[in-house]
Amino acid sequence: MAAEKAEMDALKKECDGLRAQIEAARKAVNDGSMSAAASGVASVGRVQLKLRKTLKGHLAKIYAMHWSADSRQMVSASQDGKLLIWDCFTGNKLVAVPLKSAWVMSVAFAPSGNLVASGGLDNICTVYNIKAASPKTLRELDAHTGYLSCCRFLSDTEILTASGDTTCCLWDLETGKQKVIFTNHIGDCMSLALSPDMNTFISGACDSLAKLWDLREGACKQTFSGHTSDINAISFFQSGNAIITGSDDCQCKMYDLRSDQEVICYQDASLNAGVTSLALSSSGRLIFAGYDDFNCHIWDSLKGEKVGVLSGHDNRVSCTGVPDDGMGVCTGSWDSFLKLWN
Amino acid sequence: MPVINVEDLTDKDKAVMEVNQLKLEVKLERWLTSKCCEEIKDYIQALVEEDILVKGISEEKNPFKEKGGCVIC
């Protein structure tokens, strides 16, 4: 017993020492903040977007949405047990996919537009072919021992998943088997995002950490701390050199990858609601963050100021997305509606 | 490849995992934040003029606008 305790104490001491070294190294390169770099940048002014469409069709809380790469179609997932694929130009529903398990938490569109995937409390990521005459289940990816919180396709043959079992996983869709398992978080993984060059991805978890992973090696390259609660939302900045996180601690943060640290925090004393989701405008200047307070607040990413709000939902905004062409922003809510704004 | 169930890891396993990860991360080469922030700012500003959500879009070009209703020519 004493020997075990001594061993644990030694390991803890080693951890503390290494963490102190890392903090010192970060401090040593911290010679200027984002506020300083952006001091000469003109303000964006008040961002007032108009509600263009309200998409009605789901009968229960919406938990997730994802734009197609064509910037026109979008898939949404609700705990009414359905995925709906929408044509956002007309507002029409194109396809309805009935789910085996209604407890869905995540949905994704493949870049090709041929496949969608979803999963949730069933711990399974199910992939559907939506180009068939009626939606056909292609694969049931079943190996996680916790809920599926997020999934993203790399292509029609590979998909990444994040789970409440604290791991992320890269799957081969041709065999239905796991290719790489990413283990290092000590809390439920809540979200993930692929880098623009597809060589790395980032994950946010309930251990309040964001981690950067090498997709092929399976190794965790960097860890970003600072949040004091679950990280529910995470996104890459378009250049691939920075990431944005959103947390239950009511803050969003930008972390720079090359200096390995937080460079700006998006917080407001009047905001006492957790961040559920986030999306960036096409230039990266605006961050759309969905909150538990029923709103989607808009932040100026460079100046750290709140510059607008999308109000209209009657319940928590659970998901937010900007299509690849940057033409608008979609918000999805527990009020069962999706709204399109620009 | 078997799933590593975190519930099966002992406290010592977790501590060893953490130490090994920190040993990797301590070796990282870190850039100056001033340079990094400057680059992020430049990247954004080069694209911001084309950013619809910042600059706005005319009614005719808006793919999400509500169709129907009267059109005054």
TrEMBL record, chain A:
WD repeats lie at residues 55-96, 141-181, 182-223, 224-265, 310-342. This is Guanine nucleotide-binding protein G(I)/G(S)/G(T) subunit beta-3-like. Residues 1-28 form a coiled coil. It comes from Pundamilia nyererei. Belongs to the WD repeat G protein beta family. It holds the Pfam family WD40_Gbeta. Keywords: Coiled coil, Repeat, Transducer, WD repeat. It comes from the Eukaryota. SUPFAM superfamilies: WD40 repeat-like. InterPro entries: G-protein_beta_1-5, WD40/YVTN_repeat-like_dom_sf, WD40_G-protein_beta-like, WD40_PAC1, WD40_repeat_CS, WD40_repeat_dom_sf, WD40_rpt. GO terms for biological process: signal transduction. The keyword Transcription regulation does not apply.
UniProtKB/TrEMBL annotation, chain B:
GO terms for molecular function: G-protein beta-subunit binding. Its main location: membrane. GO terms for cellular component: heterotrimeric G-protein complex. GO terms for biological process: G protein-coupled receptor signaling pathway. Pfam families: G-gamma. It is found in: Cell membrane. The keyword Membrane applies. Residues 5-73 form the G protein gamma domain. InterPro entries: G-protein_gamma, G-protein_gamma-like_dom, GGL_sf. The keyword rRNA processing does not apply. It is a lipid-anchor. Keywords: Cell membrane, Lipoprotein, Membrane, Methylation, Prenylation, Transducer. SMART domains: G_gamma, GGL. Guanine nucleotide-binding proteins (G proteins) are involved as a modulator or transducer in various transmembrane signaling systems. The beta and gamma chains are required for the GTPase activity, for replacement of GDP by GTP, and for G protein-effector interaction. G proteins are composed of 3 units; alpha, beta and gamma. Belongs to the G protein gamma family. This is Guanine nucleotide-binding protein subunit gamma. It comes from Pundamilia nyererei. The gene is LOC102199155.
